[in-house]
Amino acid sequence: MDMGHPQWPFYVNYNAGSWKGRALHIDAESGEYTEPFVKDYESEAADEDDVMFETFTDLPSKAKNGVGGGSAVTKPPPPADEAKAVVRTEASDGFDADDKGSYAVDRWLAPVPGTEDLARLQIEFSVALGDNERVRCLISYGLDSHLDRIVLREEQRADGGGGGE
């Protein structure tokens, strides 16, 4: 019987639950910000039979005209059916975590939250900065196998306490 990945419980304990964050999208070729530039979101992650499902929901955000300046404007939230992306993580050869909840994972044919893109390969790194804060970096290769996008995320726990069980 497969006993699962030994680091999976640490990953779930820290990362399950509700998070709020801001994502910065960077074009990998030019190094410039790319659509949707800066995106505020919340995510809900839950473990179901050793598979973590994380649902991202876009939030209305105060964004600047362009990225570098201009006056702040409030963008309306997108329709509910367009605002969600579900990312699946499972313990596999491309998964590793430490006992503090930091992790690295490779995903194949996965959605890029905040966009309509599908990545051929995603490489994600997450660093737990404390009980209620983490930073993540998502490196995304397009369906043409070229490095397409880098997404940097800063997140705070939204549910006010430790991770899920």
From TrEMBL:
<dbReference type="InterPro" id="IPR012674">
    <property type="entry name" value="Calycin"/>
</dbReference>
<protein>
    <submittedName>
        <fullName>Uncharacterized protein</fullName>
    </submittedName>
</protein>
<feature type="region of interest" description="Disordered">
    <location>
        <begin position="62"/>
        <end position="83"/>
    </location>
</feature>
